[in-house]
């Protein structure tokens, strides 16, 4: 365990998506670790009120709001609070590129986080990546940006943080298999008939994690686990055959790593994102005061594991197949899913139609050009338009 560095060695942190579930968790962690880290930049999409409160508490040099919120009283921000704030989509890249920023916590939801991840990696920064969609839609581009700029990605997702901690620097050739755990979401035990009538309110009732709306629906469809399988493929350079998923309703075991000698390591802890966020900041060091309750194995018992009901949750298989197919397919999977989830939350399509929208978008667009950022963004746009158009028919 390392002692806190002197204040002059504090590392500057940009929190992109600071008003969301991961963003607010990250600020709780950063507040506790103020001797090590200084909040240099904050961004939100449209929540001016909370961003204003965060700005007052952390006094970052850069404050950005992506969406239309103009900074006037209509979005709840106090008059004048946003003087000097930056606006527009480009403020994510501006925040991620600053010279006073060493670590970018990318806690934006969806494909909107891509350019900021690329910009930070190109400039040699650490990206503490919650925004898994970035890696799913453009894993090769992200790897190229790391190689060019010398940046690094440290995952915030609890499953990938667990794998990183279990691997503990061992070379990938020693890993035979990783097993990602999935809570199974709110519909783990629902029949296909009952699932057909699942509402957004049902999907948003996650049994073990408090998260943003999009990822909570992704957990209900298991699209989230497909995104995580693709994320693991790119993060750890593992072939898809070496990545498996098991349902673990208690969310205590965050993932397993099986080594070539048959030894299996797992990382455990109560379901809280504070530890993976902290570890993404301090990796490979461990520091005290994580904010995480002490582990009690008796209280956590029993720990159970079940196979995934793949037929009831087709988004998982569709996503893994898209990952295996490569090219534009993962970007199309991600974009179609984002669009379909937004439409489900708006009451415009049913729960079952999320997976069918993804399937049809993949049939139409998985072979789109994907050689560079612009082609991937074009595939992303085409998939979204396809899903919107199909729902309008
Ligand atoms: N929540 C978890 O426990 C968890 C765990 C693992 C991974 N993740 C991943 O972490 C990411 C964030 O998830 P979350 O649950 O924290 O989501 P969330 O609560 O919905 O927060 C999203 C954040 O991104 C901002 N945002 C939304 N749309 C944006 C856009 N187009 N451009 C820029 N900023 C935008 C939001 O600002 P406003 O508040 O102003 O709308 C908010 O600050 C996702 O990729 C998710 O998969 C989350």
Strands, helices and their partners?
Elements lengths: L10 E6 L4 H12 L4 E8 L3 H11 L3 E4 L20 E2 L3 H7 L5 E4 L7 H9 L3 E4 L2 H18 L2 E4 L2 H10 L7 E8 L9 H5 L3 H4 L9 H9 L1 H14 L6 E5 L5 E7 L4 E5 L5 H9 L14 H4 L13 H12 L3 H17 L5 H15 L7 H20 L1
Q: How large is the count of helical segments?
A: 16
**What helical percentage do the residues reach?**
40-55%
Helix-strand category: alpha/beta
Count of distinct strands: 11
Distance between the termini: 59 Å
> Which residues form runs of ≥5 with pLDDT under 50?
70-76
* SS strand fraction: 5-15%
Strand order of the largest sheet: 4-3-2-1-5-6-7
What compounds sit in this structure? NADP nicotinamide-adenine-dinucleotide phosphate
The secondary-structure element order is: EHEHEEHEHEHEHEHHHHEEEHHHHHH
Q: Over the alpha carbons, how many angstroms does the gyration radius reach?
A: 20 Å
Q: What's the rounded overall pLDDT mean?
A: 94
Assign an overall shape.
Answer: globular
Major pleated sheet:
7 strands, parallel
